[in-house]
Amino acid sequence: MATTERQPGKASPRDRLLDAAARLSYQDGVSVGIEALCRAAGVSKRSMYQLFDSKDAMLAASLERRIPWYEAQLAHPDPGSATPRERILYVFEQLARASLDAGYHGCPYLAVLVELKDPEHPASVVARGVKEALAARFRTEAEQGGAREPELLARQLVLVFDGASARAGAGVERLDDGLVMATVTALLDAAGVRQA
């Protein structure tokens, strides 16, 4: 899912830094330099260090701030009337839709985990929490949909989500050809997730 930014204008230096961190780390990777972040935000390095203990802390805060938006992108617009199966499929429809954006570079949380490789890094902790929440969401939907092995299905769905996201983000796969939806549908059928 692509990143979002607040409208320029009255944004505080903290918000401008978090927006710059979100945009540049998604676009260029987490190794983006402090000077580039500060320049993009229009904030001095001194101010940045008054607001954040480190670049790592700023990156983690940026990821944390995006969680509500990220989760909202994957939430079915009418969850009360949708079946668990429809809510699962909607997540993948949104992934396919997001992947068509020219600025799409894959799941920002997966990218952080892959790039940092340090499970104790503050940004890795936030990113891992988001991925665990997605797995929990899939597990809950699988249970409600009558899946024989909800835990296994949740793991499979996260694997498809992350794999499809990474391949589309790298530009080696298009997600609008139906392959992802067919794969997820096959997993749901095999697990016994009810249609209604």
From TrEMBL:
Keywords recorded for this protein, A-Z: DNA-binding, Transcription, Transcription regulation
Residues annotated as transmembrane: none
Domain HTH tetR-type: 11-70
Annotation: DNA-binding region: 33-52
GO MF terms, alphabetically ordered: DNA binding
Domain of life: Bacteria
Keyword Transcription: yes
UniProt-recorded name of the protein: AcrR family transcriptional regulator
